[in-house]
C-alpha cells in the first residue's frame, strides 16, 4: 500500500495484456493529489486503458492500483461501486444517456446516490450546468447537442457528486477552437475551485501541457518519461523529444509492425 | 486445414461455449441477487413493462387471432368429415393452451422484444453508456439489466394468456359465426375437456420457463456483445436464433414431462 497521502493514485508494477499484445509492462505511475496530471503518448499506447484500469473497468494481469488507500483490483463488487462514487470520468464520446434530457443526465448521479429533495437536486444541477455554460440547454435531449456540448454536459454530470478524482479521456479530440479553449480552462478551473485531482489523458500536446502540473509520457508499454511540462520539453531523451516536438521519424515508429514493404507489395497472392 | 487444426478449432468452440455459459450464469446471479438500492426501481420496472410488454401487445393479439382462426378452419375441415365439427372448440382450446399459445407467443416475444432488448443494451455498451454508469457508481446489472429481466419474466406469461384468449375467441369467430357450429357445443365441449391444472396451468408453466430463457438470452447477448455495429447486429441475430431454438427444444422436454 502507498504510504503517502500526497498521491491519490499509485500504480505499482502494472502489467496488462490485450490478447497477445503487451500494453503495459511493469509500469509505475503516481498521481499527485490536488494537481492536474497529464498522461500523454502516441495513439494506441494504452492511455485510455490506463484510465479504465484505475476505474477498475479492466483488471491488470499483475501489479496493484491504489486509489485513496484501496487496492482497486482486490475490491469486491459492492466496494468497487462505492469507491467509484469518489471518481468521475469524462468519456471521449461523452456517453450521455440518450433517453434522458440534459437536466436528467446531470441529475442522474444525485438521484441514485442521494436522497436530496427535488428542489435541491434542481439547484445543484443548475449550478453544475452553469459551470459548463449549458444551463440554458437543460431541456434539450443529447441528440440535439453538438459533440462539444455533449462533452460539457458529461463533464457537469461527472462532477455532480463532487468526486475527489476526475479522469478525462481525450477531452480535446474533435473540438472546435472555442470549445477546446473552454474545456482547457474548465478542467483547470474545476480542479482548483473544487479541490479535485485531475488526470488528463490526451495526445494534444499544447493543450495538455498548458494546464498540467505534471506529465507522464507512455509508449511501448513503459513510462518513457515524466516531469513538469518544461522539464519534458527540454528532455534529452530522444523518445520524449520526438513526441514533444512531433517529429515523424525517431525511436517511436510511425508504422505499425509490418513485413518488409517491397516484399509485401510483390506478394500479390497474399491478402 | 490439418486434422490437428480442426480438433483445435473444435476445442476452442467448446471452450468458448462453456465460457459463455459461465459468464451468463454469473451475469444472471449478479443482476437478480443482492440488494437493489434505487428508490425508483419500481418506476424502472414499469417503464420496461411498457416497452417489453405493452408494445408487444399488438403483434401478440393479431397473431393470436389469426392462429385461432386458422386452427378453427383447419379443424372444422377435418372434423366435419367425421361429423365431429362440434369438437372444434375443444381442439382449438387444447392446442392453444398446451402448445401454440406458449410457443408462438414466446417466438413472437423473442422476435419483437428480445431483439429490441439486445440491440438497446448493445448500443448502450457501444456508446459507453454502460461504462459511464459504472463510473458514476451505479451497477448497470442492477439498474439496466434487472428491470428488463423482470419485465420479460412478467410480460411473457401475461402475453401468453392474452394470446390464448384471443386465439380461442378467433376460433369461435370462424367456427361459430362463419361456419355455423352451434355456439353451445363450441363452448361447452371446451369447458368439459379443458382441465385447469393439466392444460391451463401446464401451459402457463411453459410460458414462465420460456419467459425466463428468452429474456435471459436477450439481455445477456446485448450485454456480452462486441461493442461495434457489426457486433450488435450479430448479437441481435443470435438472440432470435438461440431463443427460438431454446423455446422449441424446451417445449419438447416440457411436453414430454407434463403430458
TrEMBL record, chain A:
- Which segments constitute the ABC transporter domain? 9-245
Q: Which UniProt keywords apply?
A: ATP-binding, Nucleotide-binding, Transport
Q: Name one GO molecular function term.
A: ATP binding
**Gene3D superfamilies noted in UniProt:** P-loop containing nucleotide triphosphate hydrolases
Do the record's keywords include ATP-binding?
A: yes
Q: Which GO terms describe its biological process?
A: lipid transport
Kindly indicate whether the keyword Nucleotide-binding belongs to this entry: yes
Any matching Pfam family: ABC_tran
Which InterPro entries does its entry note?
AAA+_ATPase, ABC_transporter-like_ATP-bd, ABC_transporter-like_CS, P-loop_NTPase
Q: What PANTHER family does this protein's entry cite?
A: INTERMEMBRANE PHOSPHOLIPID TRANSPORT SYSTEM ATP-BINDING PROTEIN MLAF, PROTEIN TRIGALACTOSYLDIACYLGLYCEROL 3, CHLOROPLASTIC
Protein name (database record): ABC transporter domain-containing protein
Q: Per the UniProt entry, what species is this protein from, by scientific name?
A: marine sediment metagenome
TrEMBL record, chain B:
Is Translocase there in the keyword field? no
The similarity annotation says: Belongs to the MlaE permease family.
Q: Does the keyword GTP-binding apply?
A: no
Q: Which residues cross the membrane?
A: 49-73, 158-180, 200-219, 240-258
- What molecular functions are annotated in GO for this chain? phospholipid transporter activity
Quote the subunit structure annotation. The complex is composed of two ATP-binding proteins (MlaF), two transmembrane proteins (MlaE), two cytoplasmic solute-binding proteins (MlaB) and six periplasmic solute-binding proteins (MlaD).
InterPro entries documented for this protein: ABC_MlaE_roteobac, MlaE_Permease, Permease_MalE
GO CC annotations, alphabetized: ATP-binding cassette (ABC) transporter complex
Q: What is this protein called?
A: Intermembrane phospholipid transport system permease protein MlaE
Main location per the UniProt record: membrane
Q: Where in the cell is it found?
A: Cell inner membrane
Question: What's this protein's function?
Answer: Part of the ABC transporter complex MlaFEDB, which is involved in a phospholipid transport pathway that maintains lipid asymmetry in the outer membrane by retrograde trafficking of phospholipids from the outer membrane to the inner membrane. Probably responsible for the translocation of the substrate across the membrane.
Which keywords does the record carry? Cell inner membrane, Cell membrane, Membrane, Transmembrane, Transmembrane helix, Transport
Its membrane topology:
Multi-pass membrane protein
Which species expresses this protein natively?
marine sediment metagenome
